[in-house]
Amino acid sequence: MISLSVYYEGPFWVGVLEMVEGDELRVTRFVLGSEPTDPELYEFLMRHGSALLAQAAGSRAVPAGERVERANPKRAAKLAARQAARISTRSTASQEAMRVELESRKREAATDRRERKRELAEYKREVARRKRIERRRDT
């Protein structure tokens, strides 16, 4: 079974061609540039399809994982919509690392804000206490 996925990654549109043979999955990735229309994608596959298939066949095979049984058309449409949603929110390892770094910086900033607020409250209490003591001494 061969499947083609096209998604937006950074400034370019990228295609991923997946070949499943038995229990093995072979994949090749190619950059399309600007957003391709259906006729442009068809023409690209007519020109470069055999080279892409050869490149995918020459790639390293990995275990295919779960195999999906044939579903009824409505179920297949739901699965395709879910898969399309997952592809559009694809995350690379670097994006995940940036997200983790951002979250850790947010936690540090929140801790720093809390500490500064506590220190300011202590300072204000100390100033008020000193003023109160000074007022008692003056009378």
Number of strands: 4
Biggest sheet strand line-up? 1-2-3-4
Largest sheet: 4 strands, antiparallel
Run of helices and strands: EEEHEHH
Strand content: 15-25%
Q: Output mean pLDDT.
A: 83
Percent helix among the residues?
A: 55-70%
Please give the radius of gyration in angstroms. Answer: 30 Å
The number of helical elements comes to 3
**Large-scale geometry:** rod-shaped
**Separation, N- and C-terminal Cα atoms:** 94 Å
What would you call the structural class? alpha+beta
Poorly predicted runs = none
Highlighted features:
139 residues, alpha+beta, 4-stranded antiparallel sheet, 60% helix
Walk me through what this model shows.
With 139 residues, this protein is α+β, with helices and mostly antiparallel strands. Helices cover 60% and strands 22% of the residues. The chain has three helices and four strands. It has helices at 38-58, 73-88, 93-138; strands spanning 2-9, 12-21, 24-33, 62-63. The protein has a four-stranded antiparallel β-sheet with strand order 1-2-3-4. The radius of gyration is 30 Å and the shape is rod-shaped. The N and C termini lie far apart (94 Å).
